[in-house]
Design goal:
Two copies of one chain form a homodimer. Chain A is α/β, with parallel strands linked by helices. Chain A is about 50% helix and about 10% strand. Chain A has a six-stranded mixed β-sheet, sandwiched between helices. Chains A and B meet through helix 1, helix 2, helix 5, helix 10 and helix 11 of A and helix 1, helix 2, helix 5, helix 10 and helix 11 of B.
Chain lengths: ~210, ~210
């Protein structure tokens, strides 16, 4: 490991990082359609495990970009993911980010029903009348609730980004959502997080600029 | 891996997660003083690497908690870390979180000086007249600039949380800050992130409640 400082201009840091990532991936072939997303997640986490764990339903990236082009909104389960998503780029396409986790009605509903605020947030999202992309970076309960809503025909997301992190029902929730009949991007296993959720949304947005 | 759903009440999910983490750490002995922080970072990332990579200067946790008790503010280099820090808990102690990354004067200063906004943010932090904890989760350039300010006697942080993530100068910046004569918590290597920075601040805050 090089402990000299590498002199890279501010505007070149990201390009240089992506070069290093490509180099270290070596002979490893990423699916062209998904490479943007996988590389940006590795860029965000410095964790090459994601080259193995990220799972994509057929044409997930293409379908998601088409939805963003039509002005899809993002619904997320954490304020951190909301903070990390490029809201200007999304806004230029007519979309916005919703996070209901801190809403008073959500807190009350969760308390009354003895459930998590993440579950109550997913219930609240049913009222949104736009194409929706869900970016779940924290709560497996959100993903499980979303699965129920999809299966019972109450909602039809354009994409579900299923990347909660943790130890209780996280693996279960991710495997479950991959059985729903909607496009998905899921980080199999325990790893993920709000940073990963935001990185995936941003990779979708930035990739649109290139086309 | 268990693919049945585990039935855990919402209020018990964190406790159950911490049990699983303790179980999987097994015989691995964590330093008592640092265990709160290490376990919360693993909880946030599901990445046990942090049990090896997190480095603490002597009494870093104790000194940081004493500073928080005196109303120390947090300065961070990302809006995501700011979003993730428990601002209510911090506010109860008299502290607040600053992130200057989106400030217009910072953008202008960075442009004029051909540097990063992270560097200009660290310069702006020099004007704060309170005990300060820096939580750097993204930009190695912020950490390098902070090192210069410390070495030249312009600032004396109560704690530097050095957990930027990435590929360009990240390892260098972390090794450098550990040579400054200030308390630190650093995630050695490439990994880290704004989620890790926020988790460390929150672990410091939550641990105070217990005492």
């Amino acid at each position: 490991m090089n402990l000299e400082m590498e002199h890279v201009l501010p505007q070149d840091i990201e390009r240089r990082s992506m070069e290093i990532i490509a180099q270290e991936l070596g002979d490893r072939r990423l699916d062209d359609a998904n490479a943007d997303v996988i590389k940006r997640v590795i860029h965000t986490t410095a964790d090459f495990d994601y080259a193995d764990t990220l799972c994509f339903s057929p044409s997930a990236v293409e379908k998601a970009r088409a939805a963003l082009q039509r002005g899809a909104d993002i619904v997320t389960d954490t304020q951190m993911a909301k903070a990390g998503i490029n809201k200007q780029r999304l806004g230029n396409l007519g979309g916005q980010v919703h996070c209901f986790m801190s809403d008073e009605d959500v807190a009350n509903a969760a308390k009354e029903q003895g459930t998590t605020r993440a579950v109550a947030s997913m219930d609240k999202a049913l009222s949104l009348q736009k194409p929706l992309i869900f970016a779940i970076g924290n709560a497996p309960t959100a993903l499980i609730r979303l699965y129920e809503h999809i299966q019972e025909g109450r909602i039809r997301p354009e994409l579900v980004i299923g990347v909660p992190v943790g130890f209780v029902n996280v693996v279960y929730a991710k495997e479950l959502i991959m059985q729903a009949d909607v496009p998905f991007i899921v980080a199999r296993g325990r790893k993920g997080g709000s940073n990963v959720a935001a990185a995936i949304v941003n990779a979708l947005l930035y990739g649109m600029g290139k086309r």
